Amino acid sequence: MAAAVQDALNPLPCDSATVHRRLERLGVRDRNVHVIRSAVSSVPLPDERREAARSLARELTRSGTTVPAVTVGLYLLVRLGEPEDIPYLSVLGLCSELAGPAMEALNRLDVRAAALTWLVYRTAYQELLPLVRALWSEDRDAICTELVACPDAPRVLCTSSARRIAEAAGLADLLDRYPTDPALLARAARVLARMGCSNDDPTELLAYGDAIAVYERVVGRVGLVPPTLAHHASLLSLAFDLSSGAGVLLSWAPGQREELLSSLGRLLAEPRWVSVVDAAGGDADQRLWTGWIRRMGRQPFEPPAVAGRLRIEVVAGDPVDREPVETRVLVDGRPVVPAVFSRGPAGSPEALLDEGALRAEAEPREVKLAEAYCSDECCGALHVTIRREGDDVVWDGWRRPPYTPGTRDAPELPAYRFDAAAYDAELARAEADRSWSWPARTIARLIKAGLTERPEILRRWDARRGWTGSDYEEPDTTVVTFWYAPGLTAADTLKDALQFRWRLPDDGSPPESQAAAALRRLTEEDPKAYAKVCGGSPERAKELGFPWPG
After folding, report:
1. Single pTM value for the model
2. What is the secondary structure of 347-383 as a DSSP string?
3. Rounded distance, CA 137 to CA 129, Å?
4. pLDDT tens digits, 356-389
5. Of the ranges 221-225, 280-284, 493-497, 514-518, which one carries the lowest mean pLDDT score?
6. What is the pLDDT of residue 118?
7. Is 128 exposed, middle or buried (0-12, 13-18, 19+ CB in 10 A)?
8. Which of 39, 128, 146, 355 could potentially form a cystine with 134 if both were Cys, beta carbons 3.0 to 4.6 Å apart?
9. Which pLDDT value is given to residue 413?
10. Would you call 69 exposed, middle or buried from its count of C-beta atoms within 10 A (0-12, 13-18, 19+)?
11. Which residues pair with 299 in a beta bridge?
12. Which percentage of the chain shows pLDDT scores above 90?
């Protein structure tokens, strides 16, 4: 169909009726938006035809009667739109079938209008409506008030909404209008931090045209922000972005990023900020922030342990936001994953470091560096092939999804060649570094290692090892899962097996002691007696005599 649509639009018809007839004859449907996009983008538009094409686009967008025909007009306006088209595009951007191409065209003409249209169309959270109304009114005082007051939880302030809020509010200009407002400065830091979070789409930060300007204003005036744990967490997240995250990839002037990072480091080392962490107690979120800042608080400000092309940083994100633990790979100072893959964070240290996935052997091995937050099977992953070649280690044979929103135009990654001795040394350093880990995560690692080394522990209970890690919702709890069915240890499939989950809250004793105690209990007591069913089928659970979770 793609070739047929291209033929139908090349040369471009002179009137909208012809476009309607040709698309209808081809059977082009509403769902064929990507086919239309490709066809329109490839239509030659010489100077002498541009005005006629623009007139056709306006006719289609203002009086078209089918979604495919209007979509043709919208994609023509992506190439040919002018300010007079903005009001029409803003209205069409509120229609679900046309929102994508309308906002793509609008974004090229007026970023603020595109952002506001996006927020009106996409905002499903009532909590953001007062801010959207203020943005619509263009009352700067009201915008400042509502921006500071709006919720900032990840479910509301995801990367895309953070970027659109910043664009619609004109955040850099707003900070200039209210240069000494500490609440606005703190909220701007939070918006930037959410825009770059790797558990969503950190390339939204790269698409934000004022990112550098807002970084400069926030970091330059951050001394006005009162020291609190929440503010400390936002600023530390910004520091990680500037040190090893998507923020590194912005178009910085020489030394500009490094100076901002150094300024943040000096501020967070001041006694008034350190004392906030030392005095913290309180609720669960405060305890999570306190432990995180104590573990990770100086990491983004420390120079690499060894200078070289390759740098591997394990970064645990804000635990209150449930940000992931990533193995960030930087080559020549630039993070690899956010440069070319926008669908999920870099792989965990358990996946890339604990089992030696990044170690180079003479036999080439494909390694998954990152996976989409949904799943590899759904939205893909970023793979590279690693091999040892004489005195070098080579990374090449990159694989990623053919179409990645936000990074579609990113250049293909080249083959990377590293000095083998330096590569091995950096990898060994990263594998040995556990400073990022917290007790529940350490306990999980030790239990997993024990069950891997001694498979007979679970085998005697007709069980097979599952996933072991720290709990997502309660990071201070270790979770051990396993599968069970009669005769499972002799079977080659998990069909008809039940999955069990055993939760172990951190009791404050040394992680090594807690892991050893867990392994002893797994050895001596049937874990089905104290773990809970969490997977399989209700029918199978009833058949085997186990209660199904309510």
Report:
1. 0.90
2. PPHIIIIIT-TT---SS-EEEEEEE-SS-HHHH-EEE
3. 12
4. 999 999 999 999 999 988 777 788 899 999 999 9
5. 280-284
6. 93
7. buried
8. 146
9. 83
10. buried
11. none
12. 81
Cα separation, 167 vs 314, in Å, equals 31
117, 106 contact by CB (below 8 A): yes
Strand partners, 532: 501
Q: Which two tokens stand for residue 360?
A: 């180079």
Structure tokens at 488: 């499972």
Q: Which amino acid is at 286?
A: Q
Scored b (16 or more CB within 10 A) or e, 516-529 reads eebbeebeeeebbe
Burial of 432 (0-12, 13-18, 19+ CB in 10 A): exposed
CA distance 325 to 314: 7
DSSP 84-112: GGHHHHHHHTTSTTTHHHHHHHHHHH-HH
Q: What single-letter DSSP state applies at residue 252? A: P
* Mean model confidence pLDDT for the chain: 93
- Using CA atoms, how far apart are residues 239 and 216, in angstroms rounded to an integer? 13
Interacting residues of 229 by C-beta distance below 8 A, sequence separation 6+:
276, 277, 280, 286, 289, 290, 293
CA atoms within 13 A on the CB side of 261: 22
As a residue count, the chain comes to 550
Residue with tokens 């509010």: 169
Q: Is 182 exposed, middle or buried (0-12, 13-18, 19+ CB in 10 A)?
A: middle
What gap in Å lies between CA 361 and CA 389, rounded to an integer?
Answer: 8
Angle at Cα 407 formed by Cα 403 and Cα 408, nearest 5°?
40
Residues paired with residue 505 on neighbouring β-strands, in sequence order: 477
Measure the CA–CA gap between 174 and 188, rounded to whole angstroms: 10
Residues 6+ apart with CB under 8 A from 48: none
| Residues 328 and 341: beta-carbon distance below 8 Å | no
pLDDT digits 0-9 by tens, 41-92: 888 999 999 999 999 999 999 999 999 999 999 999 999 999 999 999 999 9
Is-contact 336 398, C-beta < 8 A?
Answer: no
Sheet holding 334-335, edge to edge: 310-316, 325-331, 334-335
Give the strand pairing for 392-399 and 381-389. Answer: antiparallel
Q: How far apart are CA 88 and CA 102, in angstroms?
A: 9
Verify cis geometry, omega within 30 degrees of 0, for the bond prior to 11: yes
β-partners of residue 499 are: 483, 535
What digits encode the pLDDT tens for the residues 170-214?
999 999 999 999 999 999 999 999 999 988 888 899 999 999 999
- 3 state DSSP class of 10: coil
Q: What is the CA radius of gyration of the chain?
A: 27
Angle at 245 between CA 244 and CA 247, to 5 degrees: 110
